[in-house]
Amino acid sequence: MKIIKSLVKNILWKIWTSKTLKYLDSLEQESNPKAKRLAILLRQTIKGEFSKEEMQWIEKIENLRADIEKNTSKVNVIDYGAGNPQDNRSEREMYNGTINTSRVCDINIASKRPFWAKVLFKIIREFKPQTAIELGTCLGISSAYQSSAMILNNSGRLITMEGSPELVKIADSHIKGLGISNVEIIEGRFQDNLERILEENKPIDYVFIDGHHDENATIDYYNLFIPYLKDGAVLVFDDISWSKGMKNAWKIIQKDKNIQLAVNFKEVGICIFENKNK
Length: 278
Ligand SMILES: C[S@@+](CC[C@H](N)C(=O)[O-])C[C@H]1O[C@@H](n2cnc3c(N)ncnc32)[C@H](O)[C@@H]1O
Hints:
The protein contains 11 helices and 9 strands.
């Protein structure tokens, strides 16, 4: 069974990469030079082209992921997000949160898988943002990827936000355990803290939105970010095909006049921002 699963996974990966590599060829032909930079870094990630120092960080973080996969201890998690697409949680329900007791190894399913985590890493290496904001820390895997890329850049810091106090504690120990110190974790609902965080840390030149997964909330966060973003800021939206609502949110955001370039990779959407209200 395990062999069949990994065989199927391999075939699907091959189909996806050959399709994506073709798409990257056309992305590279676009007149926007940032499209070319995105295409190159995606291609490098698919081909596994990383320097020795980059590989050292990736291996360290993947070792941590392997440890997490074995961690069966249970924690109480409060989720302020949409849950599953079929949950249809109301705004009030999401604001109040849903409490669950889960094993750490099961929570880990929500962590960005190695390929997309490496794409985030490459984006940071290529665009060298100074102030990055992440919505959705969870166990700290994507935070570790993004902040370690900033360490290799010799500049930049990550502010990551998480609503669940138990997850904040675990993510903090994971990040500290990796010897990373350029990350600040903000505990609490995004809705309650984001505006203050943006005001205190502007201008922002990189955003990764990987939490809440609700149409209106995602659009609201994007609108909240606009006045605080630097021209050329990179915005990464996760799970843009996850639900009808998330598909709608992506449709609306990518058409916004301030989005200079929008690339849809089905699971992840990447935008380059340029403020047209100046
Ligand atoms: C998909 S996980 C993040 C995974 C992480 N970025 C990674 O790849 O390692 C989403 C996280 O966002 C948090 N979250 C969802 N909605 C939230 C909200 N409205 N306020 C604060 N945290 C929220 C959840 O508790 C969860 O830990």
